[in-house]
Design brief:
Layout: E1 2-4, E2 7-9, H1 22-42, H2 76-85, H3 103-115, H4 126-135, H5 147-150, H6 166-186, E3 194-196, H7 201-206, E4 220-223, H8 230-237, E5 244-246, E6 257-260, E7 275-277
Parallel strand pairs: 5-7
Antiparallel strand pairs: 1-2, 3-4, 4-6, 5-6
């Protein structure tokens, strides 16, 4: 109030602009960011500079991503992401680890995000990376699997003695483990023991494995089950990037499920096809 001509007159104060809360600021930033990304995806040929906020700084013992990833991008950071989402390829499909962020990679990222309760938009950003950091150990293996589980199945350990250089075999085994991590998640995060992984040529011969066995390349694993039925494992494996599945009903596979990535193996001398058979589980040959 103020006095004017002997009267008390109310004074109207100017309204201050609304100040956004931290949460409102964050939401607005995300909206703007996603709008920019959507525009870039819709008009990939436009001559514009797209500025997308980088993920929050993070120092991980294995691998750290330094930018958001989405369709149209390429690089080793895309390839590292593809390795980790390879198990979310979808029914009868695979995610190529070619370092190019295409529709298959985007779809796999969406499935990964959905499986872990994240915003399923197919864009790999800070939330997606945070979950991957939580899942991976410092040697890049997923939380629930390890190199010792996947190395030489006859007890000698190591990655030598096969048809490929040991470093390539070990990398194949890492790829296999990330697929197993996705399968384990789909089964309710129940234990999924590996009974046989990589086998050297000598080991494979010793256990009576096929001469062109995927085990010799680090691309296969034999699985038992402590809490899920073997048929549950075999049926779920169809959705997690495994192009080779053999389980109950297939000769000599009534006590385990074999999974492999033969469709991605260009070194085994056989066609890159899908081969599934577990007749007791309703999975026909093919």
């Amino acid at each position: 109030m103020r006095r004017w001509n002997g009267r008390d007159v109310p004074v109207r104060r100017p309204e201050l602009p609304h100040r956004l809360s931290f949460r409102e600021e964050s939401v607005r930033a995300q909206i703007v960011k996603r709008a920019v990304v959507a525009f870039a995806l819709a008009f990939p040929g436009a001559a514009i500079a797209v500025a997308v906020a980088a993920p929050a700084a993070h120092a991980d013992g294995c691998y750290t991503w330094n930018r958001d990833l989405y369709r149209g991008l390429s690089g080793n950071d895309v390839r590292q992401l593809q390795i980790r989402v390879a198990g979310w390829a979808g029914r009868r499909d695979i995610v190529e680890t070619d370092g190019r962020y295409g529709p298959k990679t985007a779809a796999a990222v969406k499935r990964f995000q959905s499986a872990y309760g994240l915003r399923a938009d197919g864009i790999a950003g800070s939330q997606t990376y945070a979950k991957l950091y939580a899942l991976q150990d410092d040697d890049c293996t997923p939380r629930h699997f390890s190199y010792p589980e996947l190395d030489d199945g006859c007890g000698r350990g190591g990655w030598s003695g096969g048809p490929l250089p040991s470093a390539t075999t070990k990398e194949n085994a890492l790829h296999t483990m990330w697929k197993l991590e996705a399968l384990r998640r789909d089964l309710g995060d129940k234990p999924l023991p590996v009974t046989s992984g990589y086998r050297s040529t000598t080991c494979n011969r010793q256990v009576g494995g096929a001469s062109n066995s995927q085990h010799r390349y680090g691309t296969a694993a034999d699985l038992g089950s402590l809490e899920s039925s073997l048929c549950d494992v075999a049926r779920a494996a169809r959705d997690h990037g495994f192009s080779g599945i053999y389980g109950p009903g297939y000769p000599d596979h009534d006590d385990h499920v074999h999974v492999d990535s033969r469709r991605e193996n260009d070194d085994d001398g056989i066609p890159n096809t899908t081969s599934w058979s577990a007749s007791d589980c309703g999975i026909g040959a093919g």
